[in-house]
Structure formats: C-alpha cells, structure tokens
Amino acid sequence: MSKVFDLDMIKAVYDRIPKRIAAARKVVNKPLTLSEKILYSHLWDGEAKEAFTRGKSYVDFDPDRVAMQDATAQMALLQFMQAGKDKTAVPTTVHCDHLIQARIGADKDLQEAFNKSSEVFNFLESVSNKYGIGFWKPGAGIIHQVVLENYAFPGGMMIGTDSHTVNAGGLGMVAIGVGGADAVDVMAGMPWELKFPKLIGVKLTGKLNGWTASKDVILKVAGILTVKGGTGCIVEYFGEGAKSLSCTGKGTICNMGAEIGATTSTFGYDESMERYLRATDRNEVADLANGIKEHLTGDAEVYANPEKYFDQVIEIDLSTLEPHLNGPFSPDIATPISKLGVEAKKNGWPLEVEWGLIGSCTNSSYEDLTRAESIARQAVNKKLKTKAEFGINPGSEQVRYTTERDGVLQAFKDLEARIFTNACGPCIGQWARAGAEEQKKNTIVHSFNRNFAKRADGNPNTHAFVGSPELVAAMAIAGRLDFNPLTDSLENEDGEMVKLDPPSGIELPKLGFAVEDNGYQAPAKDGSSVEVVVKSDSERLQLLTPFDPWDGKNITGAKLLIKAFGKCTTDHISMAGPWLRYRGHLDNISNNCLIGAVNAFNKETNKVKNQITGEYGEVPATARAYKAAGIPSVVVGDHNYGEGSSREHAAMEPRHLGVRAVIVKSFARIHETNLKKQGMLGLTFANENDYDKIQEDDVFNFLDLDQFAEDKPLHIEVVHKDGSKDTIKLNHTYNTAQIEWFKAGSALNLIKEMNKG
Q1: How confident is residue 577, by pLDDT bands cut at 50, 70 and 90?
Q2: Residue at 648 is within a domain
Q3: Which one from 6, 62, 70, 97 is the annotated catalytic residue?
Q4: Helix count (H) and strand count (E) of the chain?
Q5: Which residues constitute the domain of residue 441?
Q6: What's the rounded Cα separation, in Å, for the pair 360 and 358?
Q7: Catalytic residue among 144, 282, 418, 450
Q8: Same domain, 583 and 727
Q9: What per-residue string of b and e applies to 71-80 under the rule 16 or more CB within 10 Å gives b?
Q10: 578: domain CATH number?
Q11: How large is the average pLDDT for residues 436-458?
Q12: Same domain for 585 and 678?
C-alpha cells in the first residue's frame, strides 16, 4: 500500500486538470498563467463557462484540502462542531505547533507544553478522531514544513487557517491562508469564495551565488512591493532563475509572500520539485505530475511576454542580488547587507546583536540548516565563538532526526546553541526570553517572516531583523549589526583575524530522509462513538454561542471604541504569546481585544475614553461596559488594517464585545473576510481624509444600512460632542451572499440553517 496521503484525491485532481484547462482556454481565449490554470481547474461548478475579471469577480472554488494549526484549529473546530456534519468533506489535518514555548530546550519545553496545554491537545485529538481529521502531535513539526513534506502537490489548491499556508506554493500549489470560518465552509462541503486575484509576475534570471539565498529574493520583493503591495494578488515566479532554486527555497519565497499581503505565491512544476517529491517518498505523485507537466506551469507565451499577461511584472537578477536584512518592526524595510551598518548608525538601531534565531516555517528545511551549519562549522574550525546567544527550531521531526543523524545539529551544539522543539516558538511569540520584561532597547536577528514590535519576545523595544539562516548564523557569531560577512574579518581566540567563507548547503540528504516517529495519528474509521468533552468551567475551551442576527434596522447611537493610529495588525488586535492559551475560549481571549492598538487621541495603547463615565480605561473593559449598557460600538482604523496573521479571533473578539462596524482606510484581505464571516461590517472611507474627522466622543448613526446592497455605498452620520455633525460616505466589498451572512449574524449561522433543511 502506498505511504502517500490522499493519493486517490490527487489522481482525481490530475485526471480532470487537462479537460478543465482546455475549457478555460476556450472562455479566456489567450495563453494561461499557472495561477489561472490552477484557479480555473478548481471551480466549484466544474468546467469554466465564463472568463472572470481579476480583482472584481467573486468566484466559488473547490479546494482539495484544509490544514489547521493548533492555535487557530480550536476556534475553527468549535465552529465546525456546530455545522451539523459527521465528517469533513475534504482531507483535513491539524498540526500542534503553536502552543509550545521555547525556553530551555526541546525535551523540557515539549513536556512543559503537555503539562500546560494537555486539555487543548486532547480536545483537538478527539475532535480530529471524531470527524476524520489527520492529527499531528506536539513535536511533530511546524504545520507548513509538515504540509510541504507530506501533503502539498503541484497544481493543487488548499486552504489553511494560518497566513503562511502560502508556503506550499513552493511545491506548485495555490495555497491560501484563511480564517477558521472559511475552513469550516470547505470542511462542511460548501464552496469557498474568493475574489479572483490579480496577478504579479516575478521573472528571476541568473543564479544565486555566494552569501545570497532564496530568502533574499522575497526580502527584495518585500522592499519593492511593501507590506500591502501584494494585496488581492497572486505572485507567480518564473524564469531560468526560478528553475535553479530548490523546492524548499521556493517554499521560503512563497511563505513570506504573506508579508506583502499577497493572496498566495507559486512556482511552476520543475525538476527541483520532482527531486523533493521523490526524496520525501512520493514517487507516485512525481510520476503523476510528470504525466501532465505542461499543465503544471504557465504557458511558454506567458513567460516570454509577461507584460501582456500579468498586471505587474518585476524582474530580479539572482546573480547580482545582495543578501538583505529587513527590519526593524516591519518586514518590508529592506536593507542590503553592505548598507546595513550605515543605516543602523543613522537610525540609532542598537548595534550589538543579542540573539540569532534560526527556524520557523519560513526557513527550517534540511537545506536551510546545512547552509547555516556550514557557517557554524567554520566558526568552530576557525576558533570563533558566538557573541550572541543562538537558537535553532528544526521544521519537523523528519528534518530534526535526519539532521541529527547527519551531524548537522552537532555543529550548532558545538557553538552552544539551544536546540528548541520542532515548533514555531519565538517566531510567534512563544519564547520565554530572559530579561524581556525589562523592555530594554536591543537587537536580534532571525530567519523568521515577521518582525512587528513585541512579536518575538513581548518587548516593544526589541529591534528584530529578518534574514537567511546563514546570514543569521554569521551575525550571531559576529554579534554586531554592522558586520558584513562578505567583506569583514573577525578576531578569533588566538588573536588572528579570520574571514568566514561563503556558505555551502545540501539540497536534500544524501542518505535520504529518516524518522522513527513522525508524530502522525490517523483518525478513527468511524468516529460516531468518539465523545468530545468541553468542561463548562474550563479556562481554555468554551463552546460557542451563535451571534445574534441583524434586526434589519439602521444601527444608531454607536459609540467610538477606539480610533487606531498607524499600523494595526492582527497582533495588535489579538496578541499571541501568552494569550495563545485562550484561543479556544472566546470570552477569555476577548480580554486582549485591541490592547496593542495605538489610540489616535493620546498615542497610548489600551487606554481609551469610556463615553458613559468620561473616564479612561482598557479597551476590552470599555467595550464590555458599552455592551452591558446595550450600546453598540465602532472601531476606526488606518491603512492595511488587520495585516499579518490569519487569526479570526481579531474579528470574533470585537464581535463578541459588541462592536458592530470596523471603518478604516483600507483592509488586509484575510481580516476583511473574517469580519464579514462573523457578521460584522467591514467598511472603508470613500474619502480617506474623513478619518481625520473622527473625534474622541463621537456617536455614529447609520443612515441607509436598511438598504444594504451590493455595489452601493453606505452613509453614516457622525455626531460630535459639540452637537455638530458630519455625514460620511463608506464603501464596502460585500456581495449579495456576504450580505446574507451579515443578516444572519454570521456565515456559520447561515450554514446551520441550510444543514437543518
């Protein structure tokens, strides 16, 4: 019997792809990009009957699979339990990787996670067992690395309740991060809706050399496009340079596409993907892919004349690309290593590097670790000691076991690095960093994807810089931000000046991958007798109460809860770190609602005016006071509101606390969808300058919500404290089906009604 997961499903997808692409060609009447081929071959209604308008048409899709990590799976599965289904409609997996805190080292930290979170792990395991979901135990690895090793396949479409689901684009998928309610739709056998994306083509020429890594491609792209430049777009990489990259290197590039707001990123099927499939024991998938490979990449004409077929084209020459370190505080502040020292001094960034961290879903493959190991081994041989502390998170148990066997991890141990659990750890704030509570200004470098303030260690003054694993290793050894390994030397223990040679890595293990226990647990064939227990007094888990439907009337008398100033990510709206423990308990986690958002009126966090008492208090407490008094509330925000993680808690918490509308200059894609799914109004100022009209004591009256319709703006009356009023026009992107979610109180309420019938 084949060890390949869901092989019959993959065969069925490959059987229909040629016919569906032929149908798409007829209606589109032009050569097709890879992204279009995958999208048109996954339409809910089967073969294409019309050409969709990029950036405008809402389209129903039929994804092949769903993946969830433990922090987001709790709320997704609590919602799925209400959907009235016996089993998931598509192959689905749960991966326990977020609830493990990095502190001492792998074994002790993993045991501590079991001690603290066994109630949640047991809940996820039993729900998975009941509903036919594959379960990956704590320590098995980081969701996106495990998906790449076991589930991703060229030409497939998947969704996942984590913004970095896009990592699977490294194996030629269209893989998209979503909120839990979207996952529930697909798991319940419903279509999944997405606005047909625009397309950005990135042509890669030349070949990586020296210190430059795949990571530097996306660090460069982030600098070009910024954190919102990819919103509503799929980024498709192509060219000879793309073919020269390893499969896991492609995964790294796709992974960080989340940092430019891209819907997803992808690469055409090529020999590096075939090598990776065979190395990970998926020969059957490689053989199937080879049989239809012309359908698993963009048409030659598209790549020959990309300007004709993409909405935007970027060209990068890998041969001349310089290593980058991006940051601090935003992943799009892109600085080539040759300019970093000058920039650091000019901006007052702390020059001493205190920690170097390698791993996360972005960079924890076998190749990543071997490239970093080549630097670590040089340091040992050249009698250099690391000036910074050093931590490693392997991406999966398979990677950890294989790198242990091949002596790769030993090089890091020789430098006294801490080997943490195969889990997210510091990348998502699960890091008990000694001294972080002192909030000292300091610098760390890491190979992760995000570097927002407070994200890694909770310290708002930690300046975090993102780079490749090999560059992180060099910076940790040097201990200085103004060190350029391409040109600079270091003094060793003997007082000699020595230079680090460029890194070298091994794409795939020569002896093959190996593992004793990969951490996978198959579900029961019949889960009907499996009981899922949620204790009524649990602090960690809470069964959901459906949100109230809309009463059909204009919302009036709504108070301003907070006017958020500047960057307001999902980390600001619903922090991770210590709050991860409450991800399955909506009321408890709502106590972190918007506590990281900066109040535009006093430039402080978690301090807003309570219009009932006139006093200042915490955001959640103020929201609860309005809710208790039966007063609706409104949140106002800036550009790209809700960027970052896919966590739907950032939409569910305000909803739970009585917020009815979020009005901003612009939204990040996933967050806007999450608000819609939870029955919230996600609206944008028709005139961005109207943001400036919002005052601290404002009250909002909707004037025409009772006529809510597709493509029709809404209007609100804003009543100021002095009695003066402004009428403000608001745009929205709700279509007719999404307006029904709002009317029902949430998309889930609508699903339940449909399943009753």
Answers
A1: confident
A2: yes
A3: 97
A4: 25, 30
A5: 324-498
A6: 7
A7: 450
A8: yes
A9: bbbbbbbbbb
A10: 3.20.19.10
A11: 95
A12: yes
455 is catalytic: no
Same domain, 611 and 748: yes
- 35 is an active site residue: no
Q: Which helix (H) or strand (E) holds 755?
A: helix 747-756
pLDDT at 1 over 50: no
Which of 463, 479, 498 is a domain's end point? Answer: 498
User: pLDDT-derived band of residue 576, with 50, 70 and 90 as boundaries?
Assistant: confident
Q: What is the mean predicted confidence (pLDDT) over 441-447?
A: 98
Q: How far apart are CA 148 and CA 165, in angstroms?
A: 10
In a domain, 690, yes or no: yes
pLDDT at residue 304 in the model: 98
Question: How far is it, in rounded angstroms, from Cα 489 to Cα 417?
Answer: 22
One domain for residues 493 and 588: no
Q: Do the Cβ atoms of 470 and 479 come closer than 8 Å?
A: no
450 is catalytic: yes
**Does 588 share its domain with 471?**
no
- Judged by phi (left if over 0) then psi (alpha if -120 to 50, else beta), residue 91 lies in beta
Strand partners, 515: none
User: Among the options 645, 649, 655, 656, which is catalytic?
Assistant: 645
Q: What is the pLDDT of residue 2?
A: 65
Give the CATH number, domain containing residue 493. 3.30.499.10
Domain count, the chain: 2
Q: Are residues 482 and 562 in the same domain?
A: no
SS3 of residue 5 by DSSP = coil
- pLDDT band at 757, cuts 50/70/90? low
pTM for the structure as a whole: 0.92
In a domain, 108, yes or no: no
Give strand pairing partners of 205: 317
Catalytic residue of the set 42, 65, 647, 655: 647
Which residue among the candidates 65, 98, 377, 540 is catalytic per the annotation?
98
Does 645 participate in catalysis according to the annotation? yes
C-alpha 270/C-alpha 600 separation (Å) is 50
**573 falls within a domain:** yes
